[in-house]
Amino acid sequence: MKADPDQIHKQKVIAEVEQRSLTSVMNHTRWNELKEAIYLELRFPPAFQNKYVLEAEPYPLVFEQDVFYLGDWESLSTAWYNVEWVRVKPRLLEHTGKYTEPTLLNIEAEWVNLLQRLRIPYLKKEQDYWIYGYATAIEFEQLGY
C-alpha cells in the first residue's frame, strides 16, 4: 500500500511544530470561517504574505509597501494545517490614472471588526495584521482579540 503524500506532508508539519515548540492558534474551521467572511463581508479580499511551517521564507518575500493586488485566500484553504502565519494589509492601492497618484482604499476598521466578531486572535505590527496558525510562546502571549 502506497503512503498518502498529504499524510506524509502533514506528519512533517506536525514534527516541525513539535520540534520548534510552536503552539497551535487556529484550526481548519476557524481559517475557513475567516476566508468565507472575507469574501462575503469585506469590500475586497486584503492582500497577504504567508509563511508555511516547512518553508524558510514567506511569500511574497517583500511585503513592506501597500500593494495593487488582492489577496487570494482560496489559495491557502487546501493546506491550513501548514500555515504558520499570515501577514495582512487591509489596504489596497487603486490606479486612478496615468499621471495621478493611486488612491488608497482602507478597510482596516471593517477588518478589525471581522477579526473581533469571529474571535480570531491577531497581532498588529505597525500597519499590518498577523494571524498565526502556529505561534511561539512569546507571540502567543501577545495575541489579542
Description:
It contains 4 helices and 8 strands. With 145 residues, it is of the alpha+beta class. A 4-stranded antiparallel beta sheet has the order 2-3-7-6, with no helix packed on it. Strands 1-8 form a two-stranded antiparallel sheet. A two-stranded antiparallel ribbon has the order 4-5. A hairpin with a 2-residue loop joins strand 6 and strand 7 (128-132). The N and C termini lie far apart (45 Å).
List keywords for this structure.
alpha+beta; 145 residues; globular; two-stranded antiparallel ribbon
Helical fraction equals 25-40%
Strand content: 15-25%
Q: What order do the strands of the largest sheet run in, or round the barrel if closed? A: 2-3-7-6
Mean pLDDT: 92
